[in-house]
Design a protein that fits this description.
It contains three helices and ten strands. By secondary structure, it is an alpha+beta fold. Strands 1, 2, 3, 4, 5, 6, 7, 8, 9 and 10 form a ten-stranded antiparallel beta sheet that branches. The mean pLDDT is about 85.
Length: about 150
């Protein structure tokens, strides 16, 4: 896995959890998340919902590639990235590389994509048997639409 400044098929996002036992550091999503017609219609719908002063967010059943605790010894840049002020980056990697990442102990379920009234998005999931929450940082949808 290599961090790049240009668009790639994958984006790494910082992630967090409220678990006392589990650790999570990042999630990986598809960079073309907001380019298909279905998701673009969601964003258009969000713009009309923003007119309602009581609207906060809307959620969709959507699964990121996954939440992980650590990338592994070959990807030394991930830990400094997680400690930096950056919240996301494009990454170049092979899909099978994800198999070597350390996953949380919890079996995650109830994956959701949340679109907020501020036109931001983030992903969240819950531990199947614990109810603990896992979530990514929030990013402006515009970042992915403008790329």
């Amino acid at each position: 896995m290599k961090r790049l400044r240009r668009r790639t098929p994958y984006i790494i996002l910082k992630a967090e959890t409220n678990s006392q036992w589990d650790h999570v550091g990042f999630a990986i999503i598809a960079s073309d998340l907001f380019t298909d017609k279905h998701t673009l219609s969601r964003v258009d719908g969000l713009r009309s919902l923003r007119l309602d002063p009581l609207f906060s967010s809307i959620s969709y059943d959507e699964i990121p590639y996954g939440f992980w605790a650590h990338a592994g010894p070959k990807d030394e840049w991930v830990e400094p990235f997680l400690m930096s002020n950056l919240n996301w980056s494009y990454v170049q990697m092979e899909e099978e590389e994800m198999n070597r990442f350390e996953t949380p102990e919890n079996r995650l379920c109830y994956h959701q994509l949340i679109l907020t009234s501020n036109e931001d998005f983030y992903f969240k999931a819950e531990g199947k048997h614990t109810g603990e929450s896992f979530w990514t940082v929030s990013l402006p949808i515009k970042i992915l639409l403008d790329q």
